[in-house]
Design the sequence.
């Protein structure tokens, strides 16, 4: 109970009080006056999450891989941050959660696109798809 | 680092037309377009970037509306990672959602106006 109260107050303190000569009382196992680290994979997750939508061309496969990797990394880091909040900076956690949201959106879009490709191949077949005229004919038949 | 950037800008200025000409004749073919003859959600982005390099904002928007926000998103996230802006993560999330909405609605618009082929 006391830890939950102390955490939100403790995080802004290193920025407000940069003087290392005057450490505030260590509350979370002595981590209080140490340097706060950024999460190890926060930047990577953010970049992968953004790239997962940029590479949506290519049947959605590349974006799918990037999104899944970003989600797995973010899950690990989130557990790490929740384990000891005072040790990692809050801004890197914000980056991590932004990257996570981006990765989820990118992943959903890529899965939809992949399903669309599979549906196209299942509906028309590769032989029709690779022939432009036959493709137009098939679409015109479908529109009727 | 600064010198490299300056050199890059000089090359772009002096041989700009040459680079654009080279890019115009070396566009990558979309595999989905190659297979089906239909546009994929990302089709038009290369032409749009070329139009942007020529300075034609309207043509760039018409070819692919999401290009300018997308470049803005990439530039802003680079700035945010370098300088750790306040509330930067929130703006990245916001811009990302805007870009996705533009891409999806553009694709749906293309389907209903029969611009895919």
Sequence:
């Amino acid at each position: 109970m006391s830890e939950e109260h102390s955490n939100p107050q403790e995080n802004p303190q290193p920025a407000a009080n940069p003087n290392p000569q005057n450490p505030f009382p260590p509350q979370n196992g002595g981590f209080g006056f140490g340097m706060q680290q950024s999460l190890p994979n926060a930047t990577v997750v953010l970049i992968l999450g953004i790239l997962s939508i940029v590479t949506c061309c290519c049947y959605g496969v590349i974006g799918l891989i990037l999104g899944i990797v970003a989600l797995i990394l973010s899950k690990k880091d989130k557990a790490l941050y929740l384990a000891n909040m005072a040790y990692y900076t809050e801004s890197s956690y914000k980056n991590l959660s932004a990257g996570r949201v981006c990765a989820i959106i990118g992943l959903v879009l890529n899965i939809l696109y992949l399903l669309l490709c599979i549906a196209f191949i299942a509906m028309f077949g590769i032989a029709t798809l690779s022939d432009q005229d036959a493709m137009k004919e098939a679409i015109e038949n479908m529109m009727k | 680092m600064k010198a490299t950037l300056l050199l890059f800008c000089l090359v772009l200025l002096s041989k700009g037309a040459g680079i654009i000409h080279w890019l115009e004749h070396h566009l990558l073919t979309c595999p989905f377009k190659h297979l089906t003859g239909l546009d994929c959600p990302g089709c038009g982005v290369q032409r749009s970037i070329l139009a942007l390099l020529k300075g034609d904002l309207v043509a760039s928007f018409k070819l692919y509306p999401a290009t300018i926000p997308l470049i803005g998103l990439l530039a802003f996230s680079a700035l945010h990672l370098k300088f750790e802006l306040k509330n930067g993560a929130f703006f990245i999330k916001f811009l990302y959602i805007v870009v996705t909405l533009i891409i999806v609605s553009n694709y749906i618009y293309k389907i209903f106006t029969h611009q895919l082929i």
